[in-house]
Amino acid sequence: MQSFFDQEDVVVYTPEELEEEIEEVIAQYETEEEKDKAVRAYMEEKSKQPLPEIEEIAVSLHEEGLSILEIALRMKHIEAWEHWQGNKYFTQYDLIQSMIENMPDDQEESEDNLA
């Protein structure tokens, strides 16, 4: 019997692959505004895709250490938790939207600091 982690359908994402995909999107537009809008739309659509069952995540150490990997794993954990709770259509997009909605308003925060 084949082991779960030895399956052929392991999805591998690399930063280089993402960079290539973004460059292909950018190449289709002339102005910076069009490029920015296209990249945002592309990343939004990508974040709406469900997580694969098995995924290999590239790990590279930066100045931040493993914090980028830790954030990615926490986001995947939250998505998996939502699925386990019955919200099977929850995606990274939903998580990002929730995070944006719950971010404190900088202006309100600045006013609070002045008081």
Could you characterize what this model shows?
By secondary structure, this protein is mainly alpha-helical. The chain folds into two domains: 10-56, no CATH class; 58-102, no CATH class. It has helices spanning 15-26, 32-47, 67-84, 92-101, 106-114, and strands at 11-13, 55-57. Strands 1-2 form a two-stranded parallel sheet. The model has no long low-confidence stretch (mean pLDDT 81).
**Spatial arrangement of strands, main beta sheet:** 1-2
List the uncertain runs: none
The biggest sheet amounts to: 2 strands, parallel
Shape: globular
Quick overview of this protein structure:
The chain is mainly α and 115 residues long.
How are the SSEs ordered, and which strands pair?
Layout: E1 11-13, H1 15-26, H2 32-47, E2 55-57, H3 67-84, H4 92-101, H5 106-114
Parallel strand pairs: 1-2
Task: Please name the defining characteristics of this protein.
115 residues; mainly alpha; 2 domains; two-stranded parallel sheet; 5 helices
